[in-house]
Amino acid sequence: MKESIHDIPSLEVAKKRTRNPIIIRHETLEIPYRLREYAKGKRYFVRTYGCQANVVDSETISGILDEIGFVSSQDVENSDVIILNTCAVRENAEDKVFGEVGSLKRIRDLNKKAVIAVCGCMVQEPHIVEALRKKYPQVNLLFGTHNIAHLPSLLDEAIFEEKRVIDITSCEGEVIEDLPLKRQEEFKAFVNIMYGCDKFCTYCIVPYTRGKQRSRTKDAILKEVQDLLNRGYQEVTLLGQNVNAYGKDLKDGESFASLLEDVAKLGVPRIRFTTSHPWDFNDDMIHVIAKYKNIMPFIHLPLQSGSNEILKRMGRRYTIESYLELVDKLRKEIPDLALSTDIIVGFPNESDEDFEATLSAVRKCHYDSAFTFIYSPRVGTPAAKMEDPISRETKGKRFNRLVEALEESISAKAKEYVGKVYDVLVDGVSKKDESMLSGYTEQNKLVNFKGDISYVGKIVPVKIIESHTYSLIGEMVDEKRD
Ligand code: SAH
Ligand code: SF4
Ligand code: F3S
Question: Which of 277, 157, 258 has its CA nearest to residue 217?
């Protein structure tokens, strides 16, 4: 198949950071007439891997496809445009995508005109693009995280010129406003407050796939939140790779604390935010979180490791002592706080002592939830070049011990909920038991309970009667939370 290459990624370019001011672009989509005509009655399917940044990107992609005139479908088999929005953070995330791309060959065999597209963080990696070009002829569109707004013209070219189209830019990035957004949910929404990341933790690919940190203006964020509130949304999660570094690139005095306060004043029933970097936390933020009842008492605070030596080699910019001090302060000021974390096991040359330090930190922090990962080398990152004599087996054993220690802490925290009443935002019918509803407490704990489907999307008081490690069982009550 002929190729049309608009831009191809480079890690060298992706790594660069300049002092150039951030460009804010207000996008108006230009949709070719023939594409609009073609789209009538045709279906699209979007599969999303990875983090919430990708969830919002998929909402934007769906918004654009809707605007062109395609119709959304849950059925990949009968779709004419299939989009895989991918994640590059670990190798197992990438393996899943290659598996799925492989299986899409059957769709190409049945429908020569189908668009099979791969986008997202994986295609920002040059070696992945090469592999897709060489081994997967069924893929006829590749577009990057900075190229989503080009989707109408890229589709037009792939469909009418029957070429494989590649548009993946490596750059610091812009802030693009006003693209259509098709929200996945009707009462909970993610709102980007910033894009990209400048931290360059030595293991992480995100700064290369997402570009430089770019904060949106406070006005644009408040407008989006106000609009959600007008439409009856109950919960807004402010999103960024380092939400609490918000504003540091704007140089107009804006900060995360003041943004959070202004969002809280709009009166959204529930405000969440993720992910906070321990290094960017300050007292003003803690005071604002403590002051407003509609800012949820839940903080995701990645630890990554409990060893100062490993933290240093990871480039995390904090010590275990300063992390524990921050946790102490948070717990003192926000009494009903729930804490969650990310931990990586098996960073290059992690010693037994380093790992024991992580276990010891876990025991001190009393986490309510956690995500654990085995270190996965990412091409182009500094850690991928570090020597790593530790065997897979040792890493596996450490991983299991870490999960055990965390589950102990998580179960103990879950038991503390029993007998008390919590406000729960009802998400829907429980995935495991259709006779039950499920939802989340303010602390982000999953609760299952009996109730009428009409409560979906509402906040109701639930008394907790039983706890499991990862969920609670409750019953609806009349009283309000104490
Ligand atoms: N910006 C967020 C999230 C980054 S990705 C943050 O800084 O916390 C989510 C998590 O994936 C990270 O917190 C880290 O624990 C994990 N992760 C990132 N790169 C990884 C790698 N190469 N191997 C294993 N886990 C990784
Ligand atoms: Fe990756 Fe570190 Fe940035 Fe998080 S802060 S996205 S772990 S580089
Ligand atoms: Fe994955 Fe990209 Fe998010 S690498 S974790 S989808 S920013």
Answer: 258
Closest ligand relative to 209 C-alpha: 3
Q: Which fold has domain 177-415?
A: pyruvate-formate lyase- activating enzyme (3.80.30)
**Predicted local confidence at residue 252, as pLDDT:** 84
pLDDT at 330 exceeding the cut of 80 = yes
Cβ 241 under 6 angstroms from ligand 2: yes
204 in contact with ligand 1, CB cutoff 6 A: yes
Q: Check residue 435 and give its pLDDT.
A: 87
Q: Please check whether the domain covering 3-167 is classified as CATH 3.40.50.150.
A: no
**Numbered ranges of CATH 2.40.50.140 in the chain:** 421-476
Q: How far apart are CA 172 and CA 156, in angstroms?
A: 27
- Ligand 2 mean position, distance from CA 410 (Å): 25
Q: Name, in order, each residue with C-beta under 8 angstroms of 223's C-beta and a sequence gap of 6 or more.
A: none
Tokens of 314: 């990871």
Instruction: Give how far Cα 270 sits from Cα of 173, 398, 421, 454, Å.
Output: 30, 37, 17, 20
Rg (CA), the chain: 23
pLDDT, tens digit (0-9, with 9 covering 90-100), for 72-86: 999 999 999 999 999
Ligand 1: centre distance to CA 79 (Å)? 33
Per-residue pLDDT of 383-394, as tens digits, reads 999 999 999 999
The answer to whether 235 and 270 have CB atoms below 8 angstroms apart is yes
Please tell me the class of the 421-476 domain.
mainly beta
Question: What six digits make up the tokens of 409?
Answer: 């802490």
Q: Which residues contact 148 (CB under 8 A, 6 or more apart)?
A: 57, 60, 61, 64, 119, 176, 179
pLDDT at 410 over 60: yes
Higher-confidence residue of 9 and 431: namely 9
The rounded distance, in Å, linking the Cα atoms of 222 and 238 is 11
Find the residues whose C-beta lies inside 6 A of ligand 3.
Answer: 50-51, 53-54, 87-89, 121, 205-206, 209-210
Over range 432-456, report the average pLDDT: 94
Cβ proximity of 449 and 473 under 8 Å = yes
Instruction: Share the mean pLDDT of the chain.
Output: 96
In the chain, ranges of CATH 3.40.50.12160 domains: 3-167
What is the distance between the alpha carbons of residues 128 and 119, in angstroms, rounded to a whole number? 11
Question: Dihedral through CA 10, CA 15, CA 19, CA 21, nearest 10?
Answer: 50
